[in-house]
């Protein structure tokens, strides 16, 4: 019986497919899953709901310290404005410190966990047993996001989606606190020309090998 959680760390830019992959892997291996982006989104939403400023680090950090990971609702938190606000609070080191502490506690759940985000392999779980960095070209990611939006709302605009993704990449990759980058020991999976099943099989191969070792 293993007494240490088997941790799978998945990082990558917005709309790379990492969220779906993380959910599928967690379900396949019977592991707990945390989309860490939701934790940043939940802090942003709590600030907005309480009429608090998005640019006051002490206030945002207090909200982050009080966050309950059990109450994260993907449907509510996936709104576009919340994503924008989340990328602003995510640049604050004190917010990151509080959320990373909660994420690390979650990561220790037995028998294993899958965490996805931007800094899992580099900062949150540097000792994860498997680290994956999922990427795809900005154009392919924008097309996926556009098709998702199109299914719900006929006036989605591809160029606006692409510009938005590029702006978000820029903010995530160039911030000073925990910028998005692959860990030196991460396996890179480029999903530009791969469907979700192919990405799953590639990840599964790497994880099965780590589970055997
Ligand atoms: O993946 P997402 O769109 O739900 O993430 C929302 C914001 O939170 C995004 O700007 C990146 C940021 N984030 C982060 O800085 N670190 C993480 N581990 C996860 C998300």
What does this entry look like structurally?
The chain has 213 residues and is α/β, with parallel strands linked by helices. The protein has 2 domains: 1-31 and 111-208, Rossmann fold; 35-110, no CATH class. The chain has 10 helices and 5 strands. The protein has helices spanning 18-29, 36-49, 57-65, 74-77, 80-89, 93-107, 120-124, 138-152, 158-174, 196-212; strands at 6-11, 32-35, 112-117, 130-135, 187-190. Strands 2-3-1-4-5 form a 5-stranded parallel β-sheet, with helices on both faces. Helix 1 (18-29) crosses helix 10 (196-212), helix 2 (36-49) crosses helix 5 and helix 8 packs across helix 9 (158-174). The longest helix is centred in the last third of the chain and has 17 residues, at 158-174. It starts with 5 loop residues before the first strand and ends with a helix. 36% of the residues are buried. 2'-deoxycytidine-5'-monophosphate (DC) binds at residues 14, 36-37, 40-41, 83, 86-87, 90, 117-119, 168, 172. Residues 14, 36-37, 40-41, 83, 86-87, 90, 117-119, 168, 172 line the site of 2'-deoxycytidine-5'-monophosphate (DC). Keywords: ATP-binding, Cytoplasm, Kinase, Nucleotide-binding, Transferase. One of its GO terms (cellular component) is cytoplasm. It holds the Pfam family Cytidylate_kin. It is found in: Cytoplasm. Residues 8-198 form the Cytidylate kinase domain.
